[in-house]
Amino acid sequence: MKNTNRALFIDLLKGLALLVMIEVHVVNSFLLPSIKSQKWFEILNYINGLVAPTFTFTSGMVFILSLQKGLDELRKFGKKFWKKIGRITLIFLAGYSLHASYLSLKKISNPDYPHMIKEFLRVDILQCIAVGLLLLLLLRISIKSNKIYYSTILILDFFVLAYSPIAWETDYTKIFPLGIANYFNRMHGSLFPLFPWLAFIFSGALIGKYYIEYKNKNEEKIFIKNLIIMGIIFFVISVLFLNFLFPQSWVNVKPNYFFFTQRLGIIFVLLGLSWMYLSNLKNYQTFIIDISRESLLVYWLHIKLLYLRIWEGNSLVSLYGSKLNLLECLLTTILLAILMIITAKAWGYLKVKYPNLISKLVFTFVTVTTIIFFIY
């Protein structure tokens, strides 16, 4: 594969995950319950369940690749550092904005409607990714040795997995405020707490490290071959333990360690297949890459379009939730995906054509909306 500043096969897999994510949100929100209860839907549900692990894993891998240059500037808190911090802050703010019923902290803190502040403080996939990337960044600044840096990430990876079952059994609201407690488990409504989802981000970072090493030696094919073999082994072992070797009491442990390794194995295989697909192509450009590179915008915007109350106080979900058949869901997914593709392409073009202007517009918009949120 032709060397580029970005590993396109990672972008390809991440972009595909985003497209499937649109289908996931449409199906979960609009599909008739009678169809969801059918046996075949379990297969679709399993496939859909691979989206979040893939999205978090590739985010960690891409971030590590982005840290390969300019480490001195990063450690001196130069322009690159603040650019990274700005991006991570934007991810945090986007995550919380998705759960804000109003652009006003005072309104969502109304004691007569306690569900609004509880909903706002939920931890979703964006907050989880932001924390993971922030940890990777701060560790990279603090630790100069590559060996110690990646060893630390490996230790943290194992810690997250080992501690996750304990974290899920502990009510952290007895120790921390709800907004912090939600980062530990799903007890109070969070969908993607740090335990165990940080493990996918750290694993992506570790695989990114090995990819860089093999790429520098022009041995990408060996890396991909090993990755696919390891992925198959992870998947087969996980299936054997979950379905045949573990007693039911161990299988019922949540989150289960083999939940992680099974999905990690599939991600390894998909990543390898993405590389193999692109390895025979030159100057590959596709809308999937565009979506991947504007992943935050695509993720945030398509959810806002589904849940924003703009139709006389109603959202699309409140109007048509659990009312559509398969064909209607398919058409909705296609239309929403096309809209996201057009948006990603347009936004990507503007960022290239007018980078300074777009940066200032984004900064101004985020700053103004944040100030309004806290004072209105």
How are the secondary structure elements laid out?
Layout (H helix, E strand, L loop, with lengths): L7 H23 L2 H4 L4 H8 L2 H16 L4 H5 L3 H19 L7 H4 L5 H7 L4 H18 L3 H23 L9 H4 L12 H23 L3 H26 L2 H4 L5 H23 L7 H7 L1 H13 L8 H5 L5 H28 L1 H21 L1
Helix pairs in contact: 1-4, 1-15, 1-16, 1-17, 1-19, 4-9, 4-12, 6-9, 9-12, 10-12, 13-15, 16-19, 17-19, 19-20
Task: Provide a concise account of the structure shown.
By secondary structure, this protein is mainly alpha-helical. 75% of the residues lie in helices and 0% in strands.
Features:
single chain, 376 residues, mainly alpha, 0% strand, disordered N terminus
Gross geometry = globular
Helical content class: over 70%
Largest sheet: none
Order of helices and strands: HHHHHHHHHHHHHHHHHHHH
Describe this entry's structure for a reader.
This protein is mostly helical. It has one domain. It is built from 20 helices and no strands. The longest helix has 28 residues, at 326-353. It is globular and about 60 Å long. The N and C termini lie far apart (53 Å).
